[in-house]
Amino acid sequence: MTSLDLVVKNVRVVRPRQPTVERLDLGVKDGRFALVVPEIPAGHAREVFDGRGLLAFPGLVDAHTHVGIYAPLADDAVTESKAAAMGGVTTMLTYFRTGQYYLNRGGSWRDFFPDVLKLSQDRYWCDYAYYLAPIQSLHLEEMEMLAVEHGVPSFKIFMFYGGYGLHGRTDDDAQRRFLMLAPDDSYDLAHFEFVMRSAARLCQRRPELGEHVSVSLHCEMADVLNAYTKLVQRDRSLTGLRAYSAARPPHGEGLAVWIAAYLAHETGCRNINLLHLSSRKALDAALMAKAIFPHVDFRREVTVGHLLLDCDGPAGAHAKVNPPIRPREDVEYLWQGVLDGHVDWIVSDHACCASEVKGARRPEDDIWPAKSGFGGTEYLLSGVFSEGRRRGLAEHRIAELTAWNPARRFGLTSKGDIAVGYDADLALIDPTRRFVVHAADSVEPGLHAVRRPGAHGPGPGDVPARPPDLRARRDRRPAARTLRAAAGSASLSVVEVVYWGL
Question: Which ranges of 87-171 would DSSP assign to H, the alpha helix?
């Protein structure tokens, strides 16, 4: 009798919070794990897949991506979610804002966000959700609407955007045009305070959402960046990624973390996410803030790019990103923070910027005019696994850092584990195989997956006022099949990822 849709047999299951890896079979029914036991007869399912003893991780929740920033959203959603699926990411969380890039318009979120959802519909090949940035003052009053009607749980602040550009120095008028601010708007510390007060007020008015409503901050100070960019550009003794790191120095991150922490304390905003901490000074500041303000629930994020790359590597201008790629000593300090449990989750901060858009076709090209951002979601699992395991990072900790922890923070209560009742999102990896990353292997040309219709999630009007676990919308999904993964710029200890997101 075929009571299950799918059985995945003979896999070594990696679960968060469980150091023991067990060899089990996985039974799937209606898109969720229905059985997780040592043996399921093949005749109990319509489809059977032999896992061949591969490691089975919960499908990754990449909690920081930027889909639609450098390409039209409807197109970017396809290519970048395919990249995610190639690397075992089954849920993408994308930050979105008004202003230049993205949809290139301002205005209210009530008018803006439905268009984002319409452009996204039936385009993603994995589950997806959006977090939004309150840029204009009118957005402050829309935060409750976004949380209640659309299930948006987190609101982003770009702390340097008020006085420093996405790609480098700019003047005040140009930056106002970039953000598309209204005449009476200011994007400054006072605005950041008001975002936090609005989040705190939302938690008070909607206590059922309070656990998941948070403010997420890109912590760099514009005044510091402007001053040091002038110094570095005049000096000329530094070039490339070293110059860019010096122009956006680590203490500019640390200072911004302190300001964010005090504002959280002052406003009663209890859930704060400190994004893509890139340096020793930034991580230390975040840990000190936790000690001084224990009533604020700080979460600390690091990207796989800041763990795999350093500013002396060959990537050059192609690796320009904000905050910058740092020297090797900062990289190793971040890894030690991961090992010591001081990092809550690891993400890609995926912002795919093709070389013809980047403004730097070769690594040795001038760093200053190049655009900021690069991809990475398809390398998230393989990069963390390879570099983490050789440093002693346990497999169950990888599952926590890449799936369980971000899923819990952002209200994805049915994701992040391989257990009965959870979404059947799964990534299988072969830890014995090695490969070298090549750009030609990335994303579109070699990916031939069959779209599975159905499995649609709720529409915008269907999300109730409760912990926003329904934000992850399911549209078209790739069929279960073996896909090539990639990681970093060296030979790594994983090559094969099998992705399920039923």
Answer: 109-120, 143-150
Using CB atoms within 10 A of its CB, is residue 410 exposed (0-12), middle (13-18) or buried (19+)? Answer: buried
Displacement of CA 4 from its chain's centroid (Å): 33
Name residues whose C-beta falls within 8 Å of residue 117's C-beta, 6 or more positions apart in sequence. 150, 460, 473
> Reading across the β-sheet that carries 271-274, which strands appear in turn?
60-65, 89-96, 127-132, 154-158, 214-218, 271-274, 297-303, 345-347
Reduced to 3 states (helix: H, G, I; strand: E, B; else coil), residue 13 is strand
Strands 481-484 and 18-29: unpaired
Active-site residue (options: 62, 349, 425, 430): 349
CA-CA distance, 228 to 406, in Å (whole number)? 34
Q: How many residues does the chain have?
A: 502
pLDDT tens digits for range 41-79? 999 999 999 999 999 999 999 999 999 999 999 999 999
pTM (two decimals): 0.89
* 159 closest CA partner among 275, 39, 65: 275
Q: Strand pairing partners for 38?
A: none
Which residues fall within 8 angstroms of residue 237, CB to CB, at 6 or more apart? none
How many angstroms separate the CA atoms of 355 and 236, rounded? 25
Interacting residues of 413 by C-beta distance below 8 A, sequence separation 6+ = 407, 467, 469
Q: In this predicted model, what pLDDT tens digit does every residue of 396-420 receive, in sequence order? A: 999 999 999 999 999 999 999 999 9
Given a contact cutoff of 8 angstroms between Cβ atoms, the answer to whether 470 and 494 are in contact is: no
> Helix 222-235 to helix 250-267 angle, to the nearest 10 degrees?
170
138 Cβ contact list (under 8 Å, min separation 6)? 108, 182
Neighbour-count burial of 418, counting CB atoms closer than 10 A to its CB (0-12 exposed, 13-18 middle, 19+ buried): buried
Assigned token pair, 310: 């350093």
Instruction: Determine the Cα–Cα distance for residues 477 and 162; give it in Å rounded to an integer.
Output: 39
Radius of gyration of the chain (CA): 22
Rounded to a whole number of angstroms, the distance between the first and last alpha carbons of the chain is 21
Known catalytic membership, residue 349: yes
Rounded mean pLDDT, 101-123:
96
Mean pLDDT for 146-173 is: 93
99-127 mean pLDDT: 96
Lookup: tokens for 240 = 């490339």
Alpha-carbon separation of residue 155 from 105, 152, 247, 282 (angstroms): 19, 8, 27, 21
* 70, HSE (Cβ side, Cα atoms, 13 Å): 22
Of 454, 391, 347, whose CA–CA distance to 95 is shortest? 347
